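Record type: monomer structure entry
Structure origin: computed from sequence
Chain ID: A
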Amino acid sequence: MYFLLNLFSAIALLAFGVYMTKKTVISSCGASIGNVLRNVVDSKFKAVLIGLGTTMLVQSSTATSLLVSSFLKKNLLSLGIALAIMLGADLGTAIMARVLTCDLSIVSPILLTLGIFLYLGFADRVKLHLSGGIMLGLGLILLALRLIVQTTQTVTHAELTAVLLKSLTDEITFALILGMILAVICFSSLAAVLLTSLLCTTGAIEVSGALAVVIGANIGSCILEIIGALKQGISAKRVMYGNTLFKIIIGVIALCLLTPIENAEKETSFPLSEFVIWFHVVFNAVICIFMLPCVGLMSKLLYALIPERKVEYDPNTPEHLDVAAYIDPNLALGNAVREVLSLGDFLQQMFSNLGNSIAYKPQEGVSSNDMKNRIRDIAGKISEYLAGVNFDSKKQRRRMNRCLIASADVSECAHIINGMIKRLNKANSNYSASFIPEIRNELGRISSECSSAVNLAVNAFFRNGKEEKQNYIEKKNQCLKLITNFHSNYIGNTHLNAEQDMRFFMILLEILEQYRHICVIFDPLFHKGELKSQEIEMNLTED
């Protein structure tokens, strides 16, 4: 029992080291990795290299698979290119297994010492902080591998262990299952292959049994990826199933060639423990070389086996809030921003309904109340989505705050417009005599200008450019002038002759005040000093 506790704690440390490395690498260069993945269009060879390099950086083929799944879901990658990236990712994992199993006992304490110093001592300096996190993660991986070796050394030399292992690995089927179980328990094919290599030093496992365990460990790592893809949609499932089929095909061929491989091992000068690790590298290299030309055929097969499901469109369901993007904060922020833009489209539909109410026309499409509830619900889901992302830099947190402010502003704007439509409907039914065509025309013009100002504000939020902000300010000022002119022409100079007229003009005053509120509601999205300076520049230009 004590042995199992030590082993599982070492495995847990290995998993945390991989997580730490993955998190800090993606935080520091996740945007660059994402841009590189997006730019892979039709070159399968380039896709393999990118998958290999990405996995060697983040120390996890699972992390690469999540990024690939996210881009595939947005149709930024084809299925064939995604499969090629995963072939490179598995090869990168195998190469890193070879590197990390070398004697790096001196490197581990250096990485841990320097890493913890940078990670904790420079929390306010992002680059040094993240560099320390990468060092710390790599140091923990090396330390965990050493602990796994030390923990299992005492047990592997026991006679009972030798008998159990020999009985298990004499049968190839049992050896395959053992490899799968080890990979799933260890959350890593690396740890499973390392344990197999260590057990080979005791002589308890024959060559054929050890190679079968390695093949099983490679297939077992795919089981973890499939489990992770279950919640990521059809596209992610296709990639993971295709990658698993590649490994099963080459795995079956390798099992048929175990005898020649065993003879080759006897002719080499490598000890069995080293041969097992090199076999792990060569196995993944063979998969990459021989399966790369087949990615197109595999794509067609996967589309036939896993067809698209006909999902009814639900406008209340966010389109861009992909949980798989949590692995890259910049990608998750981009998804949230796109969702805010879709809220802006819904808001324009509400402005269209507002214009119909002003013109005394029937409402078209979804009612304003349902649209308001839809915007409110999706804005709440944006907040929940961003709450699940770990932001490491101040820049990312600022972008997150702006995104939350924008979604809240759009939701508030929808609430205001819904109230305006109700007041206008009341005015149409109760005070139609006072609601003369001139007033309707001017209100329609104000509504159109206000809609344009809101659209420009959302566009300025998305692009964050100086020109977009100036366009928003200019349109906002035009709308405010129209409101002021309307007030002076139709309310300030009007003599109220009846109580009915007074109530009607009270409704108009409320509507004008709400138009003013909408015009300035998006100002908190931008720096006040910046907006003020741009307004002064524009006023000087007008003068």
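Annotation 1: Residues 328-542 form a domain with the Methane Monooxygenase Hydroxylase; Chain G, domain 1 fold (CATH 1.20.58.220).
Annotation 2: The first helix runs from residue 2 to 38.
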